[in-house]
Write a structure and sequence with these properties.
mainly alpha, 3-stranded mixed sheet
Length: 958
């Protein structure tokens, strides 16, 4: 019946009525344009007014009981009609996303090739190689791989330009611009990101990890300004002048500047030729210098520099004169000193804007680098300055930067990534990508620049230009860009050509899920269904096939099946588009509480998300739906959060926290809790945003330090994170500070002595006030460390206490302890309890498989893979069983299946070991190299790699 109501109302243009000042009757037929139209905010507000108005009228005209009943009825009908006007999503409106990153046809081969070239390249070339690795890792779901490569690139950088760009990029990855009270040029204490260290040329990767020793405390205060008209401070006392043995003068206007001929001649070869060569000036005691565009004060400064070799006592305008003089007379030493001095003055945007043009005109490499550093560390805001934007975006600006040595692919790669995040479709993004393409010299650089240009043009609906850039990327060697060509042809009305192109791709290369997914766009009926099924089989992480199948079921009035289909991918891969789709279906079924849950979770991932084809702001939909569910207080929300947390319902927990933050937006603890949930859901970007907001909203210094410590830990700076925790503890002992220090130490130093110290820290944490959710986590962590030091009874006590406060995940730890005590039945039972309690229980099935016989284990692992295909242990286990049964080919195929959509280190290592045992040394070496590209310090893979290489050498003919 609900679906019939929905489809009946679909033809009504009810929302058009809501746009006017009059509230139209719900059953009134309205002529006019499209049903969804209008801006998202206006539509939502008018609809909400309509909803409240109807409820108010009905409530005033009936008894209390009848009013409540009528309110529910009105809300249901109004919502059904309202969302009917948007229309259910249709299959022909769905499209898979074209990835913006480099996507090699054979990812493992590419990783292996990069590792080989990395090992064989010169030390000075390693930074460039790590940048290429960054581009490859950008498309992987784990952002830590990208950040680690970025840190390695900075570690091995040689020139100032590369150091400036990479340091700024590392800072940008943490989005420190969003931290209140943090200046762009603040030094965070790490040499790799220190603005002062970046301006020092030279190759020294060992010192780059040292604590920064910069003199940031001696920098000019933020209130300091540079005035170009200040009185020059270069005047000398008469006594000082008399002490000098001056033997010549420079005359500028009416001023005479006494100098020593030898000192001035030592400044450069041109001065030496002028004063000691065959020129007339060499025989004059007084030389007219009025036409050389330097003031008397400037020449006095030049004379003083010729004696002291310093410009520290001069005002900036005088140093700029000296820089101009140095350029004109080739005074390299003076130019270098002036350049370094002026660069040291650049500490904010205003100063950078003031001195940047002088740096370009004066060919001052360090000064331009210092100004460039400010612009980059202020991204994305600095690109909103028209002068900065014009410099980077225009060909003329790029040429000016190139002349002084500050235009590079690296620079424009960073700028374009920032621009795409800020506004994908903007002209700024297009121009920066064009400059990036112009700076590209290597094949992978051209592939990336041209492919991203194609993607942006496709988003801008400039299909002819998109096709041109995709074709350029293919010509440069990026085969994946054929997808872009096919999509561009399709958008231009050439569906059959697009199909032929994708069909040839499937035929010519090893099939991948994305190939079948794209080809499905250009066919119909059973062929489309088969392609989508094959796409899911080859790569179960692709969301488009699930979405298409779900919408198809909804079109056939099978909404329950549609929700089940979309639940399959939401069980292991949370994304805003899939949450929106499920919310849409739930609204049709009038399950407004479930829909509200999904929209709240969606807005946690993307606060600016626009619902229903971009026509309604998500926040407005929350407001509308909230009037159709039971209101709850903050105390009720806490109870709900405990329930969701204990049932391992992360999406439900996210929704509750979002609701709590709406009631108490300044609660930093809730923001922190939100970040932990997001990390568990592999939503790293959203998690870091929540963590930054928690830090900004912290009401005390010790709390702020904890959140800063977590930010540092999550971006790879463990020692700095520990230092923040210790500083917080020195101010006030708190649960979170002790927990942070213990957590980081447990991963940094796994030895027994450190484990005992971690136990002390966690015990201290548990003595501090905290809520049950966090204490449950601490108890579980403490129990885990007790297991590591073989104190199993203590571990059981901790896990039991955690379970008593509804920390359901403690079942898994308790099962591990029972297993270690050789009580497999109890271990199995504990995991069964977890499976029964947990909403998302793929990990529970995986873990339970360790405590049962082979057949039951295979069943549990099959269920784990079905629920979460991203978990790699089931593939490794099944492959090992196949190897034991001497089914080597099937074992390799099982691992290859997982590697095709998730190139995991452990899976690659195992496949390398299998290849080695089968005597396929070439494949074993390839897999080892690919694994080491992901983690060059992995000890087991290094050992296997060396062993296989040695065997391969022994087999070579002598």
């Amino acid at each position: 019946m609900q679906h019939n109501i929905f489809t009946t109302m679909r033809s009504l243009k009810m929302m058009e009525g809501c746009k006017g000042t009059q509230v139209y009757a719900l059953n009134q037929s309205i002529d006019g344009g499209g049903g969804g139209g209008g801006g998202g905010g206006g539509v939502g507000e008018k609809f909400l007014q309509n909803l409240l108005s109807k409820n108010s009228i009905r409530s005033r005209s009936n008894s209390n009981f009848q009013a409540v009943q009528s309110k529910d009825e009105v809300n249901s009908v109004v919502l059904a009609e309202a969302f009917a006007s948007y229309g259910l999503p249709k299959t022909d409106q769905l499209e898979p996303q074209i990835e913006f990153c480099l996507k090699p046809m054979n990812f493992v081969e590419t990783l292996a090739d990069v590792y080989r070239r990395m090992e064989g390249c010169a030390q000075f070339d390693k930074s460039r190689m790590y940048l290429e690795q960054c581009a490859i890792f950008r498309g992987l779901p784990d952002p830590k791989l990208f950040r680690r490569c970025l840190m390695s690139a900075r570690l091995h950088a040689v020139d100032v330009h590369s150091k400036v760009v990479l340091s700024a990029w590392l800072r940008f990855e943490r989005r420190e611009d969003e931290l209140i009270g943090v200046s762009a040029m603040d030094c965070c204490g790490r040499s790799m990101e220190c603005p002062g260290s970046a301006l020092v040329a030279g190759y020294n990767p060992e010192s780059a990890t040292d604590p920064c020793m910069c003199d940031r405390g001696m920098r000019k205060d933020e209130d300091t300004e540079i005035y170009m008209d200040e009185e020059c401070s270069t005047s000398l006392s008469r006594g000082d002048e008399e002490d000098e043995d001056f033997d010549m003068s420079f005359c500028i206007g009416d001023d005479e500047i006494r100098c020593r001929r030898f000192n001035i001649a030592s400044l450069s070869r041109p001065f030496e030729a002028m004063l000691y060569g065959s020129f007339i000036d060499s025989r004059r005691e007084k030389i007219n210098f009025s036409k050389n565009e330097i003031s008397a004060k400037g020449m006095k400064a030049a004379e003083m520099f010729s004696r002291t070799k310093s410009v520290d006592s001069f005002d900036p305008d005088i140093v700029l004169e000296l820089l101009s003089l140095a350029n004109k007379f080739c005074c390299d030493g003076m130019k270098s000193v002036c350049d370094a001095y002026l660069a040291s003055l650049v500490f904010d945007m205003d100063t950078a804007m003031l001195l940047f043009e002088y740096g370009l005109e004066g060919n001052a490499y360090l000064l331009v680098a210092a100004c460039l550093q400010v612009f980059l560390r202020e991204l994305p805001n600095s690109m909103h300055n028209p002068n900065v934007s014009r410099l980077f975006c225009s060909s003329e600006g790029k040429d000016r930067l190139a002349y002084i040595g500050h235009a590079s692919f690296l620079l424009y790669y960073f700028l374009s990534q920032s621009a795409m995040e800020d506004d994908l479709k903007s002209n700024t993004t297009v121009m920066l990508l064009e400059r990036m393409g112009e700076c590209a010299s290597e094949g992978w650089q051209k592939q990336l620049a041209f492919h991203q240009l194609g993607c942006v043009m496709l988003e801008r609906k400039e299909y002819k230009d998109a096709q041109k850039w995709f074709e350029a990327a293919v010509e440069a060697g990026h085969v994946y860009s054929l997808v872009g060509i096919a999509r561009s042809k399709y958008k231009r009305g050439h569906m059959y050509k697009a199909y032929k192109l994708m069909n040839s791709l499937v035929s010519d290369y090893t099939p991948s899920g994305w190939m079948y997914q794209e080809r499905s766009m250009y066919c119909q009926g059973k062929e489309k269904t088969m392609d989508l099924s094959t796409a899911t089989e080859l790569d179960p992480t692709l969301s488009y096939p699930y979405k298409y199948r779900a919408v198809s079921m909804a079109e056939e009035n099978r909404l329950g099946r549609a929700i089940s289909e979309i639940n399959m991918i939401l069980g292991f891969k949370i994304s805003p588009d899939c949450l929106e789709l499920r919310a849409w279906f739930l609204i049709v079924l009038e399950d407004y509480e479930g829909a509200l849950r999904d929209v709240r979770a969606l807005l946690t991932l993307n606060p600016r998300y626009m619902m229903f084809h971009g026509k309604l702001q998500g926040a407005h939909l929350v407001e509308i739906l909230s009037h159709n569910v039971q209101p709850c207080s903050q105390a009720d929300c806490w109870m709900q959060l405990y329930d969701r947390w204990s049932s391992v319902d992360d999406i439900g927990s996210l929704a509750v926290v979002h609701h709590m933050l709406a009631n108490d937006p300044g609660k930093s603890l809730l923001r922190f809790r939100q970040s932990l949930l997001l990390l568990r859901l592999n939503s790293h970007k959203a998690a870091m945003r929540s963590l930054r907001e928690a830090r900004n909203q912290a009401t005390s210094e010790h709390e702020r330090l904890v959140y800063e410590g977590w930010i540092l830990y999550d971006t790879g700076y463990r020692e700095e994170a520990i230092a923040k925790a210790e500083e917080s503890i020195s101010i006030q002992r708190s649960f979170e500070a002790f927990f942070l220090k213990a957590y980081v130490l447990s991963e940094t130093s796994p030895d027994s002595e450190s484990s005992l110290y971690v136990i002390q820290l966690l015990e201290e944490a548990l003595r501090c006030p905290s809520d049950g959710l966090r204490k449950g986590q601490a108890l579980s962590n403490l129990a885990s460390v007790y297991v590591d030091v073989d104190k199993l009874d203590n571990a059981i006590d901790c896990y039991t206490n955690a379970l008593n406060i509804k920390h359901t995940r403690a079942h898994q730890g308790l099962a591990r302890v029972y297993h270690l005590k050789d009580q497999r039945k109890l271990a199995y039972d504990e995991m069964t309890k977890l499976i029964e309690k947990a909403k998302y229980n793929a990990s529970a099935y995986e873990k339970r498989s360790e405590y049962c016989d082979r057949e039951m284990a295979k069943s549990d692992l099959g269920m784990a893979t079905k629920l979460d295909p991203l978990r790699t242990y089931p593939y490794r286990y099944r492959a090992a069983v196949l190897m034991d049964d001497h089914k080597e080919t099937e074992a390799i195929a099982e691992l290859t299946k997982a590697i095709s959509f998730k190139p995991d280190l452990q899976v690659l290592h195992l496949r390398a070991a299998f290849h080695d045992s089968m005597g396929d040394l070439t494949s074993a070496i390839r897999d080892c190299e690919a694994a080491l590209c992901l983690d060059s310090s992995h000890a087991d893979t290094l050992e296997l790699y060396q062993k296989v290489q040695q065997r391969a050498k022994e087999q070579l003919p002598t």
